[in-house]
Write a structure and sequence with these properties.
Blueprint: E1 4-7, H1 11-22, E2 29-32, H2 56-59, H3 65-69, E3 72-75, E4 80-84, E5 89-92, E6 97-99, E7 102-105, E8 109-111, H4 130-139, E9 145-149, H5 153-164, E10 168-172, H6 185-197, E11 201-203, E12 208-212, E13 215-218, E14 223-225, E15 228-231, E16 235-237, H7 240-244, E17 253-254, E18 266-268, E19 273-277, E20 282-284, H8 289-304, E21 315-320, E22 323-329, E23 336-340, E24 348-354, E25 357-364, H9 367-379, H10 385-389
Parallel strand pairs: 1-2, 1-7, 2-3, 7-18, 9-10, 9-15, 10-11, 17-19
Antiparallel strand pairs: 4-5, 5-6, 8-16, 12-13, 13-14, 19-20, 21-22, 22-25, 23-24, 24-25
Helix pairs in contact: 1-8
Length: 401
């Protein structure tokens, strides 16, 4: 029976191990991760965990006893240092060497660092792991002021959580709007207005040039005072181990529709991959839980001889205050946008269109628009845009006859 080694015990790696057993793999499985905790959910770190609404048991993908029951060897605190593709072994920092018949890489991504003075300060905060979330939680509370560098989803979620805990928050964004790299201008305007209404200060067109004892220094000379600084300016794929082993990499480890790398004995899944997305006729690096789950299914199916899962429509979500943002599809290639509903109040959606087809939908407290939009994207359904713009027309009736 083949021995499968999984490096990375996050959402992708933990799910792959469970699916291998579910799909009938009876051989040995080693699941090795750097963190001390079993596989856990990361999205709640910026929300429920920060606000003290969740315990570790609430975050775990599965109870720790699951791995022993399913005869999955879970090794925490284990850092892989090298892959020998000829010998089919993985070396670890503790000196151990583990053989594999098949290897799954699920190493995720790491926070991007700014090349500016003070970027190596030990008191700077990131939010990608449980330990980092604990540090941030300890820094928040009434009378404290958090500066968030980067106006992406995680930064805005952290700012919302800071306000819920009674702390002040300021978001510093280099571009002319928050969410500039990942969302429409309509969505940016809505979330900016809501955060400001909740007491968050948002600075745009603000270039950070250094981190100091008293706060964050901007290019125009201003000092943004802060008791704690969270840096969230994007993430890089953890592909150095794969690249050192000679695997093809391109903004992440290049994989096919089965999550297989350029080595037929090695798969890669999750944030670290650059992967085909058939519904969008291209390859992308996606950072989301749904992407991790989808690629875990692809790899587990390929390794157990099951039919491949049907190609999915990528989707994402973000919870801020009482708002649920749900996004399906990718806006790449869109030639126009259409807003359904009032874009100044919850309950609207922004549709990105290419011709008469939806390629992406951004829905704020609008589950019907999200679900229908996701289906239309997957089926490449032609849309009657006049009906789509009319909120009196049910979403199921906006398809072109």
């Amino acid at each position: 029976m083949s021995r499968i080694v999984i490096i990375g015990a996050g959402h992708a790696g933990g799910t792959a191990a469970a699916l291998l057993r579910q799909y009938g793999h009876e051989g040995p499985i080693l699941l090795a991760g750097e963190e001390p905790a079993p596989p856990y959910q990361r999205p709640p770190l910026s929300k429920a965990w920060l606000k003290g609404e969740a315990e570790l048991e609430d975050l775990l993908l599965r109870p720790e006893s699951f791995y022993a029951e399913k005869k999955i060897e879970l090794r925490t605190g284990a850092t892989a240092t090298a892959i020998d593709r000829v010998a089919r072994t993985v070396a670890f920092a503790d000196g151990s060497v583990e053989p594999y018949d098949a290897l799954i890489l699920a190493l995720g991504s790491t926070a991007r660092r700014l090349p500016i003075p003070g970027a190596d300060r030990l008191d700077l905060l990131e939010l990608r792991t449980l330990a980092q979330a604990e540090r941030l939680k300890a820094a928040l509370g009434p009378g404290r002021r958090l500066a968030v560098v980067g106006g992406g989803y995680v930064g805005l979620e952290a700012a919302a959580s800071a306000r819920a805990l009674g702390a002040q928050a300021v978001v510093i964004e280099r571009m002319d709007r928050v969410l500039a790299r990942v969302a429409s201008a309509t969505l940016s305007a809505f979330f900016t207005a809501r955060h400001r209404a909740e007491g968050v200060e948002i600075l745009t067109d603000a270039e950070v040039t250094g981190f100091e004892d008293a706060g964050v220094r901007l290019a125009d000379g201003r000092l943004v005072p802060a008791d704690a600084v969270l840096v969230g300016v994007g993430a890089l794929a953890n592909d150095s181990l794969a690249a050192a082993a000679g695997l093809a990499c391109d903004n992440g480890v290049a994989v096919d529709e089965q999550a297989r790398t350029s080595d037929p004995a090695i798969w890669a899944i999750g944030d670290m991959t650059h992967r085909p997305v058939p519904v969008h006729d291209g390859a992308f690096r996606l950072e989301s839980v749904p992407n991790a789950l989808e690629q875990a299914k692809q790899a587990a199916a390929a390794l157990t001889g099951r039919p491949a899962p049907a190609p999915e429509v990528p989707w994402f979500w973000s919870d801020q205050y009482d708002l649920k943002l749900q996004i399906a599809g990718l806006p790449a290639g869109a030639d126009r946008q259409l807003v359904r509903g009032d874009p100044t109040a919850p309950g609207f959606a922004v549709f990105h269109l290419k011709g008469d087809r939806i390629v992406c939908v951004e829905a704020v407290n609008a589950p019907a628009e999200f679900m229908a939009g996701r289906q239309f994207i997957g089926r490449r359904t032609p849309i009657d845009t006049a009906r789509l713009a009319d909120t009196a027309v049910p979403m199921k009736s906006v398809a072109r006859e």
